Amino acid sequence: MSQELILSRDAYLLTVEVRLFWLVALVYAFSALVLLFHILTRRVGIGRAAQGMMWAGMILHLGWIALRIFEGGRAPFQTLYESLSWFACTAVLTYLVVSRKWRDIYLPATFVAALSSGACFYALLSRSPAVPPLSPPLQSYWFEWHVVLAFFSYAVFVVSSSIEVTYLIVKPFLNRGADEVFGLTRSNIREFRGTAFNLVLFGFPLLTFAIFSGAAWANEAWGRYWSWDPKETWSLITWSVFTMYLHAMSIPKWRGNVASALNILGFVCMMMTFLGVNWLAKLLGIPSLHLYAV
Description:
Layout: H1 3-41, H2 44-72, H3 80-98, H4 107-126, H5 141-175, H6 189-222, H7 230-249, H8 257-284
Helix pairs in contact: 1-2, 1-4, 2-3, 3-4, 3-5, 4-5, 5-6, 5-8, 6-7, 7-8
């Protein structure tokens, strides 16, 4: 195949991929808007329709990922454009799997859909969709393990925090005597909130293994396991906050607002690790080995 034909094919594939990604982002955004309408009307059917849209968006997103893998010949999370897409897809996928445990409770979906659509639009509007060759620091056995583990732990924490926020919104209404709020009642809210704890219990080892695999990758790429790089430091902060959350859930008097605050703080620290550190390091001129992903 001539060089001209290869370039023409690659340009066509990139155009198709970008259009598909826009469709995914719009489906997620529209599902978030429909979920807001569900909040205003309290109509269960609207929530079901919105969740169906999330399923459609996720299936399209998996197709986008398959196309990106074919196009680049590698896992699609080298650049920030790809990482934001991967983050959105894993968050929606995790939510849809976990939500099968409960029926007609759609408030957490609002946070997940809004965050995922925001990540997609941020990638599309501010990042280049180009498919660069794998940079030397990423040419490691540990790279894919580290990223997959990290992003699945992030997805689990996103869903856990969305459940925690839902619990904090609904609980005061139930305490004031409401029989049912957004599908939650006094009889099922404890079990519902327990899902947030179980998710962190599942995601915490994933984050731990992600940090250890990242250290192994850093040693292979840069000759040292740990260098107190800003992203490394914030990953340790995130791990520490979720450690405190798990500890708080084991102490009866801390299981209420203290544990809820730590779960939400862990989500904030996770987002800081994923995105905030890169922005601050670039803005303030802080040396970082991870700025290749900005």
